[in-house]
Design goal:
16 helices, 81% helix
Length: 387
């Protein structure tokens, strides 16, 4: 019952925000002198009113009502201030409102009492994200070239970065090396460099880290592929069920890129005969998804596991051939050198100075070893003056 009340309250708040947004867009359309931008504001207003009608209908089914809509004095003053500043400013302010709406609908979807409610809210969330992109263009807010390029290429999480498996291997070695170096240093401090315990803890860390990184890489790669495929399937279904709306949205995106309504209409008409191409373009414009080749999850897992195990083995190796203080010093020296080498190798994917990157990584490794060794010394008395 409590969840139901919260859902109803959330729908009522969403209805009010949609009505406010629709009023703002219609007011902007009335003030806009450019015919193309005016048409876009009117289209946005219609979509917000459509959302409000959905929530009003659903609230009626739940035995509640949104109540009469009337702007508060603060809301009216805010709208007047935006209109006085110009429609470009209004677009920028409404862009932030659309992003807030994305958060609202995400939370509402998590509390939705039925699967149908969740589906409708997810569809509305997609519309709000599209509005966000449209308003970004209309607001004319300057964007740095790097940010624009990233957005055009499908956002960072979908874009294939340079370095590929090399970068993954470097970071795998780094993770294994850092974890094992810390554990070996800590156990050495706590056990007065008892080689047997250091070897046991070092190899246990190596195996655990390798398995963890391997499974993590497998799940991450598999999930990324599944998310991409799920989003594309949703978009494909929307094209099949509401082709006119999707074509109109695509036309708006083209108009915002500088094409006239006639030119945008002609391009969209041609794409209508190529549903797969239309799907790719809509997914890119609305969701920021770009087609890419996903790596095989098993290869990713194996690469992460092997590179992590390799890195973790480095601090442990000296204890196979020496013991006591000699093994500790040897482990310290080769681990420090390995940290520098891994840091320098990161320039393959970061493009930074190899010397600076190597020194940075080496200092981090030394700090980690000093802290864990110190903790080991503090714990030693609790273990009976070392094992």
């Amino acid at each position: 019952m409590k969840t139901r009340k919260r859902f109803i309250a959330g729908l009522q708040a969403a209805w009010r925000e949609e009505m406010n947004s629709a009023l703002a867009y219609r007011s902007a359309a009335g003030q806009e002198t450019d015919a193309q931008r005016r048409a876009i504001f009117l289209r946005l207003a219609e979509q917000e009113e459509k959302h409000a009608a959905l929530w009003e209908q659903r609230l009626g089914e739940l035995g509640a009502a949104p109540g009469p809509f009337r702007q508060t004095r603060a809301e009216a003053n805010r709208l007047q201030s935006m209109l006085k500043a110009g429609t470009a400013t209004l677009a920028q302010v409404m862009e932030a409102s659309e992003r807030d709406a994305e958060t609202v609908y995400t939370n509402l979807a998590s509390r939705a009492p039925t699967e149908r409610d969740r589906e409708v809210l997810q569809e509305t969330l997609k519309d709000e994200r599209a509005h966000d992109l449209i308003l970004t263009e209309m607001g004319g807010r300057p964007e740095p070239p790097s940010g624009r390029l990233e957005r055009m290429l499908g956002r960072e999480r979908w874009h294939v970065r340079s370095g590929g498996w090399i970068g993954q291997a470097i970071y795998g070695i780094n993770d294994g090396l850092g974890a094992a170096f810390g554990v070996v240093s800590g156990v050495a401090g706590a056990t007065r460099v008892n080689s047997s315990f250091v070897l046991l803890s070092g190899f246990a860390t190596m195996i655990a880290s390798a398995l963890s990184m391997g499974s993590g890489a497998y799940l991450a790669t598999k999930s990324e592929r599944e998310i991409y495929e799920a989003e594309m399937a949703k978009e494909r279904r929307e094209i099949e069920e509401h082709p006119e709306e999707e074509l109109e949205e695509l036309s708006l995106f083209y108009q915002l890129k500088g094409f006239t309504a006639e030119e945008a209409g002609a391009m969209v008409a041609r794409l209508a005969d190529k549903p797969e191409e239309m799907l790719k373009i809509l997914a890119h414009e609305e969701l920021g998804l770009s087609e890419r080749s996903f790596p095989n999850e098993w290869k990713s897992a194996l690469s992460a596991m092997v590179s992590t195990a390799f890195g973790a083995a480095i601090p442990v190796l000296p204890y196979l051939f020496a013991s006591g203080l000699t093994a500790l010093i040897a482990s310290f020296v080769i681990s420090t050198a390995a940290h520098f080498a891994v840091g320098a190798a990161k320039v393959v994917v970061t493009g930074r100075s190899w010397l600076r990157s190597g020194l940075e990584m080496m200092l981090i490794g030394l700090g980690e070893a000093a802290i864990t060794y110190g903790i080991g010394l503090l714990v030693a008395p609790l273990l009976g003056q070392g094992l």
